[in-house]
Amino acid sequence: MHFQVMAKPSGAACNLNCTYCFYTEKDNLYDGFGPFRMPREVLESFIHQYIECQDTPEAQFAWQGGEPALLGIDYFRSVVSLQEKYAGGKKVSNTIQTNGTLLTDDWCRFFKKRDFLVGLSIDGPRKLHDRYRVKGNGGPSFDKVMSGLALLRKHKVSFNTLTVVNDHNSFRPLEVYRFLKRIGDGHMQFIPAVERLPDDAAENLGLNLAIPPFNGDTAASSQLTPWSVSPEQLANFYIRIFDEWVRHDVGTVFVQFFDVALGNWLGAGSGLCQFSPTCGMAGALEHNGDLYSCDHYVYPKHKLGNIMETPLSELMASETQQRFGNSKLDSLPAYCKACEVRPACHGDCPKHRFAETPDGVPGLSYLCEAYKAIFNHMTPYLRVMAELIQAGRPAPDVMRILREHGMKKTSLSPGRNAPCPCGSGKKFKRCCGA
Q1: 427 — phi, psi (to 5°)?
Q2: What is the mean pLDDT of residues 412-427?
Q3: Distance of CA 182 to CAs 187, 278, 318, 328, 357, Å?
Q4: CB-CB contact of 155 with 180 (8 Å)
Q5: Which of 295, 330, 348, 359 is catalytic?
Q6: What's the DSSP call for residue 59?
């Protein structure tokens, strides 16, 4: 059986207090007592079970939090030691997601030696990053993150950047993209910030954000948090970046969203549960061994069990988890099934399905109109790239084709004297079009 588990050995503990974080509040599910640290016996059992039940030649571990670096280097040295103990001839690889503020030369030497892929959270240049990614005292974190990034580059550690697209940085797509291209390692991930204010069920658990809908439920709360990105701005963000990427950076900059879309175009699958027909193959493991159906569904209702009591493979293959994964397709409204971009979108992540279709059926993604605009805009370019690949030619040839045919910019771009779509009130030529 092949599945993934996002392990959170430090639980929800973090040294930052990012405004939009959906996970730090999960410490309330464990009575708020910290610091959280996965005990040795739970860690060893997880590593042993996870390697043993993977039906592929490689076992890929993903470490997240909170902030996993809070556990210290020695903790992850023991992780690697346990992986070597139980590898059984399989290749073992590791990724770790970090805010970068705790990185040192020693950390980066360890990552390089042990070939860790590091995901670094950064939301753009200083003024954009520091809007929401703040320290516990509310102070800025940008300088500490950039120091950590400099150490990753110094020690030649492989890393990608992870950027949360929110109501603030979404207004500056090219500024964000060009900054990440300049400071990064050529790989980018973008995640839209979409959260709602708490409903009664969330407040009863001591949580500050609404519990995501499930299996076509009608959302009890649809009031968005102030930092959530709007569908219009997400569409503008991706389209503006795509237009620059497809003309200048194909083959040198890898944007996960574009790779996923191209994978679906080629019929190879997206490789990302958000845009796959079903989900349920990526569990989330808390510090005490509790396993949940998904990182976005760490709530009592979606707790599968504890790996110290029931084998990991049994929990991931359980009827409960199968129902969870299949519900993404089973609860897809007819409106979505008839949509022209369904093969690329597949209804989006169930977490975002708190809107209603035009005929009043629940289960529509809040970001539906964004993905319609994005995927429809990308379609002619993805078609050319897919044809190039299928003909045995490199995808970057699309850039030469665009240059030689002199294709105009997207028709969605406003005129130079039109109001800028970012909402600044300035003319386009004096704002984002400068």
Answers
A1: -70, 150
A2: 49
A3: 11, 36, 45, 38, 41
A4: no
A5: 295
A6: E
pLDDT at 259 over 90: yes
Distance from C-alpha of 434 to C-alpha of 269, rounded to nearest angstrom? 37
Written as six digits, the tokens of 423 are: 């909402």
Instruction: Choose the weakest-confidence range: 20-34, 246-260, 332-346.
Output: 20-34
Count other C-beta atoms under 10 Å from residue 389's C-beta: 17
Whose tokens are 């030497």? That residue is: 109
The one-letter amino acid at 168: H
User: Any idea what DSSP says for residue 125?
Assistant: S
Name residue, tokens 């059926």: 361
pLDDT of the residue at 220? 65
Q: Tens of pLDDT along 144-191?
A: 999 999 999 999 999 999 999 999 999 999 999 999 999 999 999 999
Triad 28, 34, 38: Cα angle to 5°: 100
Instruction: Provide the 3-class DSSP secondary structure of residue 118.
Output: strand
Reply yes or no on whether 31 is catalytic: no
Evaluate whether 195 touches 224 at the Cβ level (below 8 Å): yes
Average pLDDT over residues 209-224: 83
